[in-house]
Amino acid sequence: MAKHTVLKQYFGHTDFRPGQEELIDGILAGRDALGIMPTGGGKSLCYQIPALLLPGLTLVISPLISLMKDQVTALNGVGIPAAFLNSSLDSDGFRQVCREIRQGMHKLIYVAPERLGNEGFLALMQEQNVALVAVDEAHCISQWGQDFRPSYLKITAFVDQLPRRPVLSAFTATATAEVQEDILQRLALRDPVKVVTGFDRPNLFFDVRHPKKKDDLLLALVEERREKSGIVYCATRAGVEKVCDLLNRRGILATRYHAGLAEEERRQNQDDFQFDRKAVMVATNAFGMGIDKSNVGFVIHYNMPKSLEAYYQEAGRAGRDGEAADCILLYGPGDVSTAKFFIQQAGEENEALSPLEVAQIQARDYRRLEAMVDYCKSTACLRGHILDYFGQAHGPTCGNCGPCRGQFVRQDITRQAQMILSCVKRVRDRLGYFVGAGLISKVLRGSRDRRLMQLGLDTLSTYGLLKGTTAGELGHYFAALEAEGYLFTELEHSTLRLTPKAGEVLFRGAQVTMTRRAEPEAAISAPAAAQPVEDSLMAALKATRWKLAQGEGVPLYVIFSNATLADMARRRPRTMEDFLEVSGVGQVKAEKYGRAFLQTLADHRAGEEE
Ligand code: ADP
Ligand code: MG
């Protein structure tokens, strides 16, 4: 069978996504592979299709137990023999799967990395013909990454003990060069085919809001999206509790997830969300890696994360089905101090590292945080900002983010800019070091603050130049000057610094304009795309899916994704042959569910003709 046949017959797709074919071809030709694609890019197929075509067994190493179960359910659902071995199985279940492996029943086996150190498991694999090892979420092998897992370091030792070296492949959505290099080295990939696809996710709408009251805006945003499933990320456990209560009091079906909950409750809540019993998951960043829920319609960050990598990964959990989805960040100045606190704390807690290493890691974390804050303050295309960060080229505007869609007021602030920048310069010249924005603001507004007086800053020529301007207003000017690249907040010591570009304003008369979003506090952001009122056919198809999912006890998307239902509603197939044309419908699913959906479509036609 050829790879295209497998794609169509099992997975119901007609075309490969960017990068998939190259990786699959490489693996089939016996080469190691490294696939770097965004979340939702389709990495799983890159090892699942070779697994079917290669003689022997494919071992998939994946960090999360819940994810394995869902992937295996999904594979079995399209007729592919696969199983997992992990701590969620009881001893009978475990022996059963081992027996099935010995009988050669499976094409794919999912295991957690911890398992690789187990003697029994090694012995079992030594008896098998392991053709391919696929390392999913491969960034877990890197200490530079967000989610380092020491057990990932066992992979090479394990592979070395197999009688024949299998093809080794690794997949991740993490883009940074450091992490890529780490993966190559630590897995000892041999001359791999390496595919890095674009990082853009065109169906995601990005926005940053600066609300006075986060709770009000959050409620408005979630209520607007009542039909959808979504995730709200908070920085702390206490935040999760508070926000989850807030939503529940408003009658929104929300559940929660954080490391402080008992294992049992976490699993229950995750299931409630996964199975669409609860529409909204409120969680800390402990929730998410490897979640495979394709119909997440929005991801709202109640607090700013600590880096753009983390943000893009979390926000990227929206819209994996390719449907329009919203990623909205609610920024508040307090978020910066929370993030700084986490950076400090992480350094202090990590006893395995030397003081020098701690300092290096903290310095790097501060740079990342600064980039995150830049994003929050940006008034230009947000998608462009993200792609710049990952080093990918892009057009000037994307048309699908807050700034690209928003209404802006522009104001000339050249005069204020000159005063502010020269004040920062004078203070620096006087003291020999940069100070924070708070002190600069006080100098400009002519405050009688004690520290200011002690330092003698009231004798500067810029003292009191902007008397009568409120601290809030000055904050807007600072933010605008940062967005334009004249000022820069260095977070480790909380200082406001001049950039070399400031010279253009100070010495060469450059004009400065401030771009401010026209956003009345209560106004509700434009949703990603005009949301079509869901028509009755789509509702009927969803109802049928719901019934089938209940019957089988599987999540909705294991039956069909929203994208598949949407294509079905568009094509309105009448025969089984037409039904197979629907994107996402393969042979096995057509046989299992075709009749039910064709019936729903027929009922709908009859209703229309009446
Ligand atoms: P990743 O692991 O890269 O985050 P997945 O492998 O989970 O992404 O795939 C995300 C979604 O994309 C799944 O719903 C999958 O069915 C779909 N998908 C993958 N490849 C294709 C393809 N070639 N055509 C259409 N849909 C695809
Ligand atoms: Mg994946």
Strand % is 5-15%
Beta strands, count: 17
Q: Low-confidence segments, ≥5 residues, pLDDT <50?
A: 520-533
Shape summary: globular
Integer-rounded radius of gyration = 27 Å
Instruction: Give the helix tally.
Output: 26
- What topology, given as strand order, has the largest sheet? 3-4-2-5-6-1-7
Sheet having the most strands: 7 strands, parallel
pLDDT averaged residue by residue? 90
Give the helix/strand class.
alpha/beta
Helicity level = 40-55%
State the distance separating the first and last CA atoms: 46 Å
What ligands does this structure carry?
adenosine-5'-diphosphate, magnesium ion
In brief:
This protein has 26 helices and 17 strands.
Write a structural description.
Helix 2 runs parallel beside helix 3 and helix 22 crosses helix 26. The protein is α/β, with parallel strands linked by helices. It contains 26 helices and 17 strands. Strand 3 (82-85), helix 5 and strand 4 (108-111) form a beta-alpha-beta unit. The two termini are 46 Å apart. A seven-stranded parallel β-sheet has the order 3-4-2-5-6-1-7, sandwiched between helices. Strands 8-13-12-9-11-10 form a six-stranded parallel β-sheet, sandwiched between helices. Strands 14-17 form a two-stranded antiparallel ribbon. The radius of gyration is 27 Å and the shape is globular. Mean pLDDT is 90; it is low at 520-533. The longest helix has 23 residues, at 355-377. Helices cover 47% and strands 13% of the residues. Bound molecules: adenosine-5'-diphosphate and magnesium ion. Adenosine-5'-diphosphate (ADP) binds at residues 13, 15-17, 20, 37, 39-45, 292, 294, 320-321, 561.
